[in-house]
Amino acid sequence: MRIHSVSPSRIVRALLFCVPFVVAAGCGGGGASSGTGAVPISNGLCDPGTAVQLARPSSGQFGVSTGTGVIEIVANGNSNNLYSSYTMYDVILQSNFGQQIVTSPLNLTSDPGGPKPYASDYYYSANLNGQTLQSGATYSAYLNIFNSPCQQPFPLGSFST
């Protein structure tokens, strides 16, 4: 009786043959993003793959209302991790008093009157889900990929109430 086995070199050759086709299939493009792409893999910084900053409130802004219910960010372009998987991101607000607010997942939004720091501006918003900002606090905002192994949220800027 002969036991069938596959040599390791045949497996390696088969994998090397298939990998370019799998990669090419994953690079198919065009169309609008549903924002539900795969979670970007990172064990370090929660990298959006592009320049991104606070839009509303803006970084460095003072006197932000404690009743603010939405955080808006602006990113450069739509050929990046953030655009392809924005529903996997949220914003973390950390106050100098120790309060932490985690927003809803991001939504793609329109803001014709928003800041225009980049050649191609894309806006995203996140709700505070009824959580209230503390008066007289300074908040640092971070972009986070939830359910991800990334260890360090991406800094967006800070503002004060």
Automatic annotation (TrEMBL):
Q: Which domain of life is it from?
A: Bacteria
Q: Which residues form the signal peptide?
A: 1-24
- UniProt entry tagged with the keyword Signal: yes
Q: Which UniProt keywords apply?
A: Signal
Q: What is this protein called?
A: Uncharacterized protein
Q: Which organism is it from?
A: Vulcanimicrobium alpinum
